[in-house]
Write the structure tokens for this entry.
Amino acid sequence: MPDLDWVFLDAGNTLVLLDFERVAEVLHREFGFRGDPAAMDAAEPLARTHVDGPRLDGDFERERWMTYFWTVLSAAGWTDRDRIPAALKALFSQNRTFTLWSRPVRAAAATLDRLRDQGYRLAVISNSDGSVEAMLERLGMKSRLEFVIDSKVVGVEKPDPRIFRMALERSGADPGRSIYVGDMFHIDVLGARGVGMDAVLLDPGQHHEKRDCRRVREFADLPEHLSR
């Protein structure tokens, strides 16, 4: 690896995951569906590939997320694709009350500490709804970060290069001595490359073996990967 000063991080599916226990609770309460959270969790890496592409407009982007949740929920026994819109409405309503993205990845805080011990400065750049900074504070991660950029707050989202430039300007970082870590090739890897940063793709399901980029299976693997 080249010498690095800054490691910029995604939040969703990088530091935190969907809480499928909570997803299952909402779906049971609203629809009587008793889905297995572990089955949803196991299907999520494959579901993620359905939303990893160039950003689309309107109905096309909504259809992607319909496919994402169909992949996750059908793995747990949901059989009616026509009811996916109602399920999404119930889940997004819950998300406004308490974010569903609230389950830390394995060894999240310890991995942040290892990265800091290796001398890296850390910050988050996230496509979110304005809640990511409070969520990271609640989970004990914010104090390990120098700042958090939330797309809802700044008015622009990845892969738009402007959000990455905001982070570079705020940090004073050299893009050639910085790296971005996220779970989406088109949004995270290509977005970071657009401003001259290298990137690491989190690929827990090993669905991106043909992608021309650095990959690790999970966030906890990152310190060792960066030290090579």
About this structure: Residues 100 and 166 are 27 Å apart (CA to CA). The mean pLDDT is 93. The radius of gyration is 17 Å.
